[in-house]
Write a structure and sequence with these properties.
The protein has 795 residues and is an alpha+beta fold. Helix content is 32%, strand content 28%. A hairpin with a 3-residue loop joins strand 28 and strand 29. The longest helix is centred in the middle third of the chain and has 38 residues. It is elongated and about 145 Å long. The chain starts with 11 loop residues before the first strand and ends with a helix.
């Protein structure tokens, strides 16, 4: 007896034969029929039970067979027996020949004695348009009407006395029998819905099985009445509506082409097909856009696939793999025709004849129907979806085609949106990277490392960073963030970065630089507006200038996160710096802060994308940032990587991230020489001599001639046109010698070309010709004229 079905199985002869023809199951009913015990026949060829041997073996096609064969009894006599056979596959496999077994049954007795019946009631039962079957208290078939016999595909006299699992041979039949057992034991009616193909059907149907107990005059349950109602149209309409609804919810959750293609395959499996493949045209092969005209052969790239079986064993191509589809392949024919094509049977064989591997998969899994649906959106062909069936025995119908086209059309718009977003993102990212420094310039003032990461989902933004060498060995550090994302934000970032470099080149103080930058953002906002509406350009910025000679740093910020500072041996701390308004508000002041930084101080400048996280508060992100900065490391590059790994979420940041980490370096006092210059032109010669002697002390005698000329011109101009006091300063490192002359006159000199008869005006022109670069900067009490000489040119 079965653990589910608690009644005697001896009323049916049941045997199980594997696909090799070996007996693997033998019931008590089979022993009653043929006399053999299970020990005598299990494990032996089933053909030995046939009276005619292998020659009498019937030809079986399909998953169900019935007929009469002559069997040999244990005592030697033969007897004709009507058999009903079901081919069963292991769970997870497809239909057709392959691993599995055959369940073969035959009834040994009828459905039991019948009470006297009312002829009219009997006629009503038999002629009822509703399919009705009556099962006795052993859940064996007692009566069926003509409608149910048509559904089963066998007459009553053949199946009478069999259980429903022996008639149907399906998993659904087992579930149905469990419900019938509940009705029998509880006396309560039940309903059960199932979508399956019965023995009398060419295609699967949806059935509503209504089960009610049959009671005698004393109220005892003596059987179960099963009435089957075909509600296929309602079921399929509901299924299609549910599929369309799922497609609208599940497809297009991201702006990623591959993910969207996978969502399309997932939605269609198994609701519409047993295996779905999505192949897309590769825009890179057509200049970034899908082709306007499609001709075979067509090169497509597998974007996604999905199967009712784990691992998609039916797939020939792997995701990401390109394939060339020739003429008369499903993919090429559908794309060239520009409409959905369906093939089954011989037409499917011809459709796949171009690829032997695909033909073998069709034979292996019993694929019987295929549908190729072009993926089209906004007049552009993006690829093709191919849907196949092998477990579902019904071929694709016209309604299936309409449903596949509707779902694919929804997915096509999402794929096109994702494609356009990816293209814009790549363009913006290329623009962004072209505008950012490829590498930071080496300076004597500090060692620096940087990182830039675009947002994981929001697209490229306007974050930037820069390290700008200034006069006097000083260096500027800047980090900024433009509001918004996309190409416009990247372009605005490029304009602001250029403006910062230009303003830094004229040596503006940090607060003054931000004031000029604010004016620029206000103008950009006005230009971005239209038809009287204001623009929406905005930005934040942090600007710092570090002097390695004085070891002092001046900082100002415009609505930007404050930098983090770690003095040698000290803990990380935020620099106490006035916040300042964001750029673009106009007319509001900015304030600077000056700090003295010991050599080896680490400064971390960053944009808010680093610390702003939806799943973590700002304080938590700041703590992680502090810990990552404080941990010892061999290099600043290692520190940057550790910060990003520790602070950013696993899926990437929601906003752009710009990070600049710098370690200050001081210029030793012995590399700086300073002289106070008297207001006497006759003393220029002794000063030139002192400069040459200082260069000899620094072992820079090769630069003496040029430096002597430059110092002579700058000092002479300061004495002649400047205001006292006047100071000369020489600074050098391994590569550069800097000459600076400062005075208290705020008027800056101008380079001009002297005429032939002019007695002067050639000094600055000479300086410009002899030096690597020169310039002037305003100070709080005047100006400084400076010139740089490359020591490598002198060696």
């Amino acid at each position: 007896m079965s653990p589910v079905y608690p009644f005697d199985d001896a009323a049916t002869a049941r045997v199980v034969i594997d696909d090799a023809g070996t007996l693997t199951g033998w019931s008590e009913g089979a022993r009653r029929l043929l006399g053999h015990t299970a020990d005598e026949v299990v494990g032996r060829p089933a053909v030995r039970l046939l009276a005619g041997g292998a020659e009498a073996l019937p030809t079986i096609t399909g998953a169900r067979w019935d007929g009469t064969v002559t069997l040999r009894h244990r005592d030697g006599h033969t007897l004709p027996v009507w058999l009903l056979a079901h081919h069963r596959r292991p769970p997870g496999d497809g239909p057709g020949d392959g691993p599995g077994d055959w369940l073969i049954v035959t009834p040994l007795e009828g459905g039991g004695p019948r009470a006297a019946e009312d002829p009219l009631a009997t006629a009503a039962l038999i002629q009822s348009p509703c399919a009705v079957a009556v099962y006795d208290e052993r859940l064996r078939l007692s009566r069926v009407n003509d409608a149910m016999a048509d559904v089963i595909g066998l007459p009553e006299e053949r199946v009478k006395g069999l259980r429903i699992t022996e008639i149907g041979g399906k998993t659904a039949s087992s579930e149905l029998e469990e419900h019938m057992l509940d009705v029998l034991t509880s006396g309560t009616a039940q309903d059960f819905q199932v979508y399956m193909r019965t023995g009398g059907e060419d295609a699967a149907h949806a059935w509503l099985a209504r089960m009610a107990p049959i009671t005698d005059a004393e109220g005892r349950v003596r059987g179960v009445c099963l009435a089957a109602h075909d509600f296929t149209e309602n079921y399929l309409a509901r299924e299609r509506l549910q599929l369309v609804n799922e497609a609208s919810v599940r497809i297009g959750t991201t702006l990623d082409v591959t993910r969207t293609a996978q969502e399309l395959a997932d939605v269609c499996t198994p609701a519409l097909a047993d295996f779905v493949s999505i192949d897309l045209l590769d825009p890179q092969e057509h200049g970034g856009e899908p082709p306007t005209a499609i001709t075979a052969p067509i090169r497509l790239r597998r974007a996604a696939h999905q199967s009712v079986q784990e691992g998609s064993p039916e797939a020939v191509a792997k995701p990401g793999q390109p394939n060339l589809y020739p003429e008369h392949s499903p993919q090429a024919d559908a794309l060239v025709a520009g409409r959905t094509l369906v093939a089954s049977g011989r037409a499917l064989e011809l459709w796949l004849a171009w690829d032997r591997t695909r033909t073998k998969r069709v034979e292996e899994y019993g694929i019987h129907s295929s549908m190729a649906v072009p993926i089209q959106a906004r007049g552009v062909t993006l690829g093709v979806a191919v849907l196949t069936r092998y477990r579902r025995m019904d071929p694709f119908t016209a309604d299936d085609v309409l449903l596949a086209e509707e779902v694919t059309a929804r997915a096509a718009v999402c794929i096109d949106n994702a494609r356009r977003f990816s293209r814009e993102r790549e363009t913006a990212l290329a623009l962004q990277r072209s505008l950012l420094p490829r590498k930071l310039p080496p300076t004597a003032a500090l060692e620096a490392a940087s990182r830039y990461l675009p947002a994981a989902r929001a697209g490229v933004g306007g974050d930037w960073f820069d390290v700008i060498p200034l006069s006097g060995m000083r260096v500027a550090m800047v980090v900024g963030d433009v509001v918004g994302h996309g190409i416009q934000a990247s372009a605005t970032m490029g304009r602001l970065r250029t403006a910062v470099r230009t303003l830094a080149d004229i040596d503006l103080a940090p607060d003054e630089l931000l004031t000029h930058l604010d004016d620029l953002v206000v103008r950009l906002s006005a230009e971005a507006g239209g038809e009287g509406s204001p623009g929406e350009v905005g930005a934040t910025c942090l600007y710092a200038v570090y002097d390695p000679v004085s070891r002092r740093c001046t900082l100002a910020r415009a609505g930007h996160p404050p930098p983090i500072m770690i003095r040698p041996g000290g803990p990380p701390e935020h620099v106490d710096l006035p916040a300042g308004p964001p750029l673009g508000l106009g007319g509001l002041p900015f304030e600077s802060t000056e700090l003295e930084l010991p050599e080896g101080t680490v400064l971390a400048l960053y944009t808010d994308g680093l610390v702003e996280n939806r799943d973590r508060d700002l304080d938590g992100s700041q703590r992680l940032l502090f810990d990552a900065l404080y941990a010892p490391s061999d290099s600043l590059d290692e520190t940057c990587d550790r910060i990003l790994h520790a602070v950013l979420p696993p899926g990437g940041a929601a906003d752009d991230v710009a990070l600049l980490v710098a370690r200050t370096q001081g210029l030793p006092a012995e590399q700086v020489a300073t002289w106070d210059i008297p207001a006497d032109p006759s003393l220029v010669a002794p000063i030139r001599k002192q400069v040459v002697e200082q260069l000899d002390t620094w072992n820079l005698s090769e630069a003496g001639f040029t430096a002597e000329l430059v110092v002579s011109e700058l000092v002479t101009n300061a004495i002649r046109y400047g205001a006292h006091p006047i100071r000369l300063r020489l600074i050098h490192d391994a590569a550069t010698l800097i000459c600076e002359v400062s005075d208290t006159n705020h008027t800056a000199p101008h380079l001009r070309r002297a005429k032939t008869w002019d007695e002067g005006g050639r000094g600055l022109l000479l300086v410009a010709q002899l030096t690597q670069r020169w310039g002037s900067r305003h100070t709080t009490d005047g100006k400084t004229i400076w010139a740089e000489l490359s020591l490598f040119d002198e060696l």
